[in-house]
Amino acid sequence: MPRRYPVNSDDLQAIKFTGGSSGMPKGVMQTYRVFNSCIASMIASFGFDMNDRHLLAAPMTHGANTMILPIFAVGGTQLFMGQPSPSAILEAISSMRATTIFVPPTVCYMMLEDDRIDEIDLSSLRHFIIGGATIRPDVVARAMPIFNHAMETCFGQTEVPQIAICMRADDWQDPANHASTGRATVMTQIGIMDAAGTLLPAGETGELVLAGDLVMKGYYKMPEKTAETIIDGWLHTGDVGYVDERGFVFIKDRIRDVVVTGGFNVYPNDVEAVLGQHPDVVECVVFGLPDDKWGEAVHAAVELSK
Q1: How far apart are CA 125 and CA 93, in angstroms?
Q2: Which of 44, 52, 58, 98 is deepest in the core (most CB within 10 A)?
Q3: Is position 112 within any domain?
């Protein structure tokens, strides 16, 4: 018989490495409290039930894997497909009658460009969840009726996983919310702080900070970095935004220089290091620019040798 080991809610459940926006790997210590809070917050926020059929289209290493246990917990079903592509995902939703799927904005953009998008049956969808990056407001308006008025989104970081903020489909129908990420979930508290660490009132812009049971224990063997990130119980996200008087969060930009393209982080220093190996390159700088398909696209300014 398997042996069951007793654990406490604050015992370490996993160490998940993230580069954040510095590119320097940090081991995020997630406790059982964090893990269980993520599951509970998913169920409470999205209202999953035994009728949900979750199509795993995004890589298991992406945020999509956090949907698995919440849906299993309520008796739902996991649907697996072959090599995913925008066209194949659309076909799988239709043929498998999927109710739930998690995709980054880039995949959503590519699905919308499919020749069959206005013909394929997507009426089974209940939760078309966008995550990993911010989707453009104009796409929300266009895509909402196409995806059965089921578009939703959530926000988190490895340090506060996946579901600190959530936008349900009913709220996202409102054009006033198309640029918003949603509101705080059941186990998370949201604040906006200025540079001095003062919480700001509704409508004022500052750094987004989060507190609650989703917050990590700290960074593995990095107490100084932990102390810089979690101050008086508030985790500093490095994102700039504001919360309106209704409690909806609007994330405007990032403090750091990471380029988020297609839902994944690209570190300019890494790209510069590769470009700099070319014998004709004297100097280079890498940065992100807005892109209709990828959210942001990586660009470089290069000085060539004479």
Answers
A1: 8
A2: 98
A3: yes
